[in-house]
Amino acid sequence: MRKIVGIMEITRIICLALIFWVISPFCIWGDSSATRMPDGFVDLQAVIPSIVVDLRYYTSHNFVGESIPGYNASRCFVTRETAHALKKVQRELSQRSLSLKMYDCYRPQRAVDKFVEWAMNSSDQTMKKEFYPTMKKTDLFRKGYIARKSGHSSGSTVDLTIVPVPVPEQEEYLPGQELSECYLSREHRFQDNSIDMGTGFDCFHEFAETQNTHITPQQRQNRLLLKTLMEKYGFRNYSKEWWHFTLREEPFPNTYFDFVIEEGE
To answer: Which residues pair with 27 in a beta bridge?
Structure first.
């Protein structure tokens, strides 16, 4: 009997090992995170053809200074619920000859890991002047700008702004060009084609706080327009970043996907 029990235990262990070997490439343990795009995600431009997409992490114009792992295409994937909520926001903006512009949508976990690795490398200050001009890199974790997990990886958090329609020409960023502080007045910072929100995108500075009082009345009004419409259709804002919103009724809370953003999904 002892021998039979021993054989059964060995068999159980082998079976569990086989199961682990088969499914482990597709999961991040503890978070139920798939590396293949799950059902329930959509390409936002397929739902809202008029929306503007400017994925900064696909380019080198971001606080790291290079294209980020997992962004192999400039495509905005979000959960279906998020897409339909954004469609309602876009419909209202279109009545004012305005449009949403997406800076970031779904973000693979490997991209978040890259941000953490970058933040821990104090010697890399390549993009400091533009994105964190008054802050030490070591403070980015403590102040809530960098974290080991991001709601973006759940597919219902987005970074976005508003642009006029017709959409103005966008300044092209050239790697190595002279940088300007993200909190400067519109004419002195990078020439993003959005309406004036008071700072550039991913500006790690107090002026980027949604309700900061040191910006102009027009800048506050522009932020309020974005915040009001996003909240009307089910989003909540992250108070430190005027551009950052999460769908309140997100379908995959606390789930951090890691599928790569590719062409032709």
So the answer is: 34
pTM for this structure?
Answer: 0.87
Q: Which residue has the tokens 């991001």?
A: 150
Write out the two tokens for 42.
Answer: 């959509």
- Give pLDDT tens digits for 168-206: 999 999 999 999 999 999 999 999 999 999 999 999 999
Tokens of 45: 């431009």
Q: How far apart are CA 203 and CA 180, in angstroms?
A: 11
Give the residue numbers spanning the domain of 129: 36-247
Residue 181 lies in a domain: yes
The secondary structure of 129-148 as a DSSP string is HHHSTTS-GGGTTTTTS--S
| CATH code (residue 122) | 3.30.1380.10
Residue 116 lies in a domain: yes
How far is Cα 175 from Cα 183, in angstroms, rounded to an integer?
Answer: 20
Total number of domains constituting the chain: 1
